Queue: 2 jobs
Job 1
Amino acid sequence: MAVTDEYALRVDHVSVELGGRPILDDVGFELAPGDLTGLIGSNGAGKTTLLRVILGLLTPNSGTVAARSDGSRRSVGYVPQKFLLDPDMPLRGRDLVALGIDGHRLGIPRPSRRRRELVEEMLAAVNAEQFADTRIGRLSGGEQQRILIAHALISRPRLLLLDEPLANLDLRSAREVVELLGRIAHEQQIAVLISAHEMNALLPVMDRVVYLADGRAACGTADEVVRSDVLSRLYGHRVDVLRVHGRVIVVAGDSDDAEPTHPHQHDHVDVF
Amino acid sequence: MHAVLHAIVEPGFFSSSNVQLAVVIGGLVAVVASGVGVFTVVRGQSFAGEALGDIGAAGGSSAYLIGIGPLWGFLGINIAAASAMELIGIQRARGRDLATGIVLGLGFGLAALFLYLGTTESNTTGAPIQILFGSLFLLPSSNLPLVVAFAAGTIATLITLYRPLMLVSVSPELAAARGVPVRLISAAYLLAMAVAVALSALTIGAILSTALLIGPAATALRLTNRPHRAFLAAAGIGVGCTWLGLLLAWDSYYWPPPRNGWPVSFFVVTLVLVAYLASGVRRRRPAVSGS
């Protein structure tokens, strides 16, 4: 996507400390409408903290977050990583999608034709019609993800955040969800931000990368960011990026070893 | 037709003012407890509900000791206990079970003390039975306005909380991201549960009160996967079990041995169990197709 002045999200010099420990350190980037961006980093890199800041659940110690909204829509849709789906929960996929319209309001929803049509439209957008009448607790991980994506999309946000949506999916479901998200980003001109510790599943559709390491971020296209020199600077030590059969493998040395190390001495390997 | 009715309903059932009062209060309480119970079951708070019922025994017995209506005792101690559980941290599963269990033990201890003091003073043995196991036929009519008020308040609370509570029950994170005050909604629900259990304790007794909270709800959840229907079905099953229990208890006065009726609560909880088991039989077929 071409760089435009119009942004869906602008994160500016954001720093967060939790319990005296720096979690995010001067993180800044912009997301444009229509772009699918991967928020990549290993566990503990600060991905969830950053998502919480963007959602407004956590106030940064410094820096600003601006989500642009045209007023008529909710600006941010969110798909959490963890959700309790008791198999007995009397909630069908279509009920959870409908809760995306006004689930935060008090009272019980009033059924209407417009409501039903909107839910149908969203179910179709995520290919979930065939299991829309099953209890959510009985759906597979990939099916639940699609219902939750429809739940997030129904309020027509400008920005869609997903916290590790591929974490518990088998390869085929993960590929289907990724393709769906890429299509949604481009067709509906929504900025999609997907956090993941595994980059390869996102590579085919990812327009941009925000790469987090030790609370600091590098961003750009995958070719700009996922390079040995950029990631070495980010990690503060030598990191090698290998490309094998279209997959990216990031090989990191010992974290307190600033000198380049030989491959056979590597004691820690991150496969992305 | 008249003869058939007589075979099922022993004389005096419909004309007794005690029965009429029991039908109204029992029905109202069943609607509240069973409706509230749907969220109790899906939120995995059955143990907290059970604990509230048991703690309620202490409230009922202390009310008896100081000479006020047992409903005030049930309500007072259940609301206090629910607040304590919320403060201790009922949201975290392990802390929740431990906190609940400890408070529960204290409740039984107090109930033992108050019932001992009360019965040695007044020399009646009926009070412990009434508080622990209920006495729908013996409720004074002065309870009716109170029950109506608290039942209406609890149903209104449940309807008000419905959407955000559903969202919180699916995912607290998701709800928080949408601006739902998760802690407040959960606390308000716990309070509604405390009132529902107190009402239930008044009708079928403190010890058995959770049967009405959990049983019809669990049965309804087996029968339907639609949220609205689950609440309606739970309320219907709760009311059905209560009313049928009343009828059987009335009839049991005419069963041998003579002059001894069986307690209403026994029939109500037995019917709740029967309904639950029956719903399991019905579900066996669709359960195969789901995975």
Job 2
Amino acid sequence: MISVSELSKSYGPVLAVDRVSFEVPKGEVVGFLGPNGAGKSTTMKMLTCYIPPTNGTATINGFDIFHQSEQVRESLGYLPENVPLYQEMKVEEYLDFRGQLRKMLRADRRKRIDYVVNRCWLGSVRNRIIGHLSKGYRQRVGLADALLHNPAVLILDEPTVGLDPTQIRETRKLIRDLGGEHTIMLSTHILPEVEAVCDRAIVIAAGRVVAQGTTEELRQSRRLTARVLVECRGPAREVEAALSRVSGVSKVEILNGDGASSGDGKYVTAAVRSAEQRDVREEVARTVVQHGWPLREIRLEHATLEEFFIQVTATQAMAGPEEVSSQ
Amino acid sequence: MSRAVVIARRELSSYFYSPVAYVAMFLFLLVCGLLFWDDFQPGHPAAMRTIFDWMVWLLVFVVPVLCMGLLAQEWSTGTIETLMTAPVGETDVVVGKFLGSLFFFVVLLVPTLLYVVMLATHNVGRLDLGPIFSGYVGIVLVGAMFIAVGLFCSSLTRSQVVAAVSAAAILFVVTIVPWWASTKATLPTFWRTLADQSVYRRYTDFSRGVLDTSNLIFFVIATALFLFLTVKVLESRRWK
């Protein structure tokens, strides 16, 4: 449905988007993930034909973004960052205008407006002036506009930013429900959102795609292992030594210094990793008890997407956005 | 319905929500009213000629103010993004905004029909409606050209103030400067011919009652030129 190949955008000497390539099949919900300034919005603006690419191509629903721009825009529903709207219009008036702009016939328009107003929970503000609405409502108006003509593809730039927790949850649910029927690409830097809503994620940093895959694949890809956290009262060095000797343990790290920072006096938190990804909690617990150190907490911490994200984007950030060499 | 018409309708209703438009309208009508009052004396000819001539000068400043937001506001609020990512062409946008503004301009002129009524009631049977009709035709043509210039300047900047000032500057050069130059008797032929291609010179025939096609064509071409340039400005974004 969305097919991007070596898409690049440079603003003068700065390369904002660097040979980005990815595919989004029909019906998939893809999360476009990356730190601020990574090039997410720029890529989306190119896909929606708002700015031209410097290099590379992309097709949406089979139409080329540069040569078949009008057909691309007909198949697309777009929610830009900052949701720009005409402040002086009323909600329904605005949606009607957008519908007319897309050459929807009156009966169809009316039906779809009722549908999107319902779906985006705008019923109570239908006749309110957009300038008088809160951010959450304005975001929903933008979303309603994107959905209005039932497009095959939805491109949403940070659809939940600025919303309160209830609204965030509802919007995510809406996006999940729409997936399958529509192909959705949304950008975010909120990791739990990707896990909650998306089938797959594309991670972009400093203009480059640094990883792609399902959230599970991403977590695994960096060989981030799960670790066991154990908190016990005992001399740090001995705890470290004893735990290292436990079979299956590859690395032990004392997290809170010499136990001085723990208020109860000398409680030590150790992070224990196992190379074979074995659950070593039982052995660890037994070791701690055998040495007579009071055991306060022991838990298994799964590899998080956050660690993956930080690792992956940090390396890219070091490299920095590439300066385009002068010809 | 054509996309340009959809945009024109939206633009027109947006004018009615805009405080700037009301202020400009009020000032324009106030000054026109004062001028008419001054002219509506016993012994003066029953014609709107003076008013029409003054109107052109007023419009040099009023139209840029009316048009300053047309595209400049879209740039500054970001709504240009939702507009251009809809399946809409640059020509649709420019023509739509132009038509919407032109229609508002005609609405702006409607209260001046009051003057015609007043002249008619005080000069029963002797009022010559010909020059009045052609005067209005001329004013609408002038308005169309001025709107096209205002729209063009609005497309070049995010700042409405810059748009208004630059449009007023262009219109000033094209309208008032040639008039001033023509008052200086000794002018070489080249400059004189150039000064003749000014708005004011081309317009005065209309207020006198003469509908000359060459004048009509002047305004149509000037309007089309600026609209064309505006479309090019919008299209240039696709190549940046």
